[in-house]
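Format notes (please read before filing issues)

Several people have asked whether sequences and structure tokens are stored in separate files. They are not. Every record keeps both together, in the order shown below: the sequence lines, then the token lines. Line labels are part of the format and must not be stripped during preprocessing.
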Amino acid sequence: MLQAIFFVRIMLLINFLCWLLIVLDVDAVHGGIICREARCKPDGPAIRFPFRLIKGKGKQSTHCGYHGFDLSCTDDNQTLLEMPSSSNNLFVEKINYASQEIEISDPLGNIFNFSLSSFFFLVRNFSLSSSPLQFVPGHNNYNYTLFSCPFSEARYYGDFCGMELGSYRFEQKDPENQTYAVKSQCSIDRLPLESCTKLHDYTSIPDISSQMKLHWSKPSCRHCEEMGKACRSKISEYSLARVNKTAERECLDFAEDSSHRGTRIKISVCTVSVAFIAVGALIIYHAYSPNKTEKTNQLRIERFLEDYIAQKPSRYSYADIKRITNQFKDKLGQGAYGTVFKGKLSSEFLVAVKILNNSNENNGEDFTNEMGTM
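Then the structure lines:
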């Protein structure tokens, strides 16, 4: 009974240690959460590194992506691009991880509304060097110059260098001035800006429409996509500076995260170890139990011989018993605790030899008592 209790305790301890190893292993992988691909809806764009889902079903941990690549899910399962410097958000229609491009839209017209405020919004969020998402270079991109003009002068033209100047009119608090964004490709002779002041130049700005594409250059995971693998960072703390400078990336299979695979390996190792130790413990237990029983029997025999030392009892080996009984040839009878055989110590002395049955439930105690009585 004591051996069984000890065995159970050993098994519980081994299982606890394996469980602790697996938990610590999972917890060591970027804060304990494995980054898995997410979607706001089944046919929506896949969300994975460097993007991260910060709101909605399937929300990911902050370590799963970079700052500036934050996405969220609306109540109707649309994918939104969170803008760090604005309360406005854009819908994400597609994400191409091979070309590292993202297609955004503004179906409600809150941002892409041909106003100077939308122009500033796009410049501030996608043109400045600090932004990880930039406009995709293309033939539809233009350079613009901002001018501040007296408000009193009328500047409404139906067509102004392929675009309506009035569409970029921005009413400021100063009633004496208004600001215009003008394509730099326009000839200065066609610009009614004699009394205007130049403010700033902006380069490679796309036409404002209901949809446009953005791209990111860092982190670069094209080589992972070419191999049909996913990408992730090797560091656990992310900042925009690290994205542009020191962040190292590694490729891993889509089917199974490498950290998850490592956890499965540890589970397998623990399972095999537990089984191996269990088998070993059973072997040791079964080897130990007969040995202990044998020692108990030997001790009982020694005590028996000491108790009847006055009768000068003799000790014989099993080989001697077989010789005395002529290989147990002559059976005299069957007792309660064993079988009686005829034996011969010498030509003059005949003896009866009783052999204990193996099925005796009292480990020979009754048999010993019977011998003592005789």
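For reference, the curators noted about this record: The two ends are 34 Å apart (CA to CA). The chain is about 30% helix and 25% strand.
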